[in-house]
């Protein structure tokens, strides 16, 4: 019998309608990533994902509910993690509570989720004066990241779509990687919290949809350049496999342990 991964997905945004109609909302996108990772790496895992609308409903797992899950995953968002608005403040307070008081529950944060964890735990999140980091980008791994990922690779390729970034690491966390534009590309609190600045769940179509839907944000030249880069190979499915193994604390292992596997969602 396969191991059931019980995951609370904290949904912090809804993609543009043009993206939802073709690529699905965040529940669809994150489910697709994790299912693709399970299938690609032969993981004996089945998913039980409970979505929580943390924006409109300010819904979050209860204390009792936290006892019945293996992990929490926080999605990306067009909102800023440093925003002083009720739902963001509520989410930051909740994540601080979970991380400080529920060490059994593994936490994975993606982009905005990465930033909200940093804010919740005493780090600093701000707007990057260097501008936006967009489409497939390779970030250099720190030595701590190489040990965590059990790899001798020097970098990981991932879809990016952000200007806000973590500028100061919270206490008791280590940095996983960097690019010339963004020095903190992921955070790790061993056996408890893992975050990534990029978007392993994004397909090329999602990135292109964002580029075309944000009128006035990107010039025609930028749309063309980033659209081409969005089609490059990346490590999204490999990272999805890492998330599953991290949340289940090594209870499952991939059939294919090729550390250099690069794959699209």
Describe this structure as you would to a colleague.
This protein has 265 residues and is α/β, with parallel strands linked by helices. The protein has a single domain, classed as Class I glutamine amidotransferase (GATase) domain (Rossmann fold, 3-Layer(aba) Sandwich), CATH 3.40.50.880. Helices cover 35% and strands 25% of the residues. The chain is built from nine helices and twelve strands. A seven-stranded mixed β-sheet has the order 2-1-3-4-12-11-9, sandwiched between helices. Strand 11 (186-189) and strand 12 form a beta hairpin. Helix 1 (17-23) runs antiparallel to helix 7 (204-213), helix 2 (26-41) crosses helix 9 (236-247) and helix 7 packs antiparallel against helix 8. It starts with a strand and ends in an 18-residue tail after the last helix. Residues 257-261 have low confidence and may be disordered. InterPro entries: ChyE-like, Class_I_gatase-like, GATASE. This is 7684_t:CDS:1.
Question: Brief description of this entry?
Answer:
It comes from Paraglomus occultum. The chain is an alpha/beta fold and 265 residues long. Helices cover 35% and strands 25% of the residues.
Q: Which helices and strands appear, and what pairs or packs with what?
A:
Layout: E1 3-11, H1 17-23, H2 26-41, E2 45-53, H3 63-66, E3 71-74, H4 86-101, E4 106-110, H5 112-120, E5 124-127, E6 133-141, H6 143-149, E7 155-162, E8 164-168, E9 174-175, E10 177-178, E11 186-189, E12 193-196, H7 204-213, H8 220-230, H9 236-247
Parallel strand pairs: 1-2, 1-3, 3-4, 4-12
Antiparallel strand pairs: 5-8, 6-7, 6-10, 9-11, 11-12
Helix pairs in contact: 1-7, 2-9, 4-5, 7-8
């Amino acid at each position: 019998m396969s191991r059931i991964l019980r995951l609370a997905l904290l949904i912090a945004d809804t993609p543009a309608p043009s993206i939802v109609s073709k690529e699905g909302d965040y529940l669809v996108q994150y489910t697709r990533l994790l299912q693709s990772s399970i299938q690609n790496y032969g993981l004996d895992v089945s998913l039980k994902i409970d979505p929580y609308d943390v924006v409109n409903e300010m819904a979050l797992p209860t204390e009792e509910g936290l006892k019945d899950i293996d992990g929490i995953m926080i999605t990306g968002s067009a909102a800023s993690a440093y925003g002083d608005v009720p739902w963001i403040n509520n989410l930051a307070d909740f994540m601080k509570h979970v991380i400080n008081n529920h060490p059994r529950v593994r936490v994975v944060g993606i982009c905005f989720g990465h930033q909200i964890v940093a804010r919740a735990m005493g780090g600093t999140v701000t707007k990057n004066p260097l501008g936006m980091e967009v489409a497939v980008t390779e970030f250099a791994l720190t030595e701590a990241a190489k040990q965590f990922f059990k790899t001798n690779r020097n970098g990981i390729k991932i879809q990016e779509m952000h200007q806000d970034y973590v500028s100061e690491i919270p206490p008791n966390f280590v940095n996983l990687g960097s690019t010339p534009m963004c020095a903190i590309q992921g955070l790790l609190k061993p056996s408890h919290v893992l975050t990534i600045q990029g978007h392993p769940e994004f397909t090329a179509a999602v990135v292109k949809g964002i580029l075309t839907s944000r009128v006035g944000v990107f010039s025609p030249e930028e749309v063309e350049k980033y659209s081409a880069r969005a089609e490059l190979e990346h490590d999204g499915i490999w990272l999805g496999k890492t998330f599953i193994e991290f949340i289940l604390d090594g209870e499952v292992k991939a059939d294919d342990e090729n550390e250099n596997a690069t794959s699209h969602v």
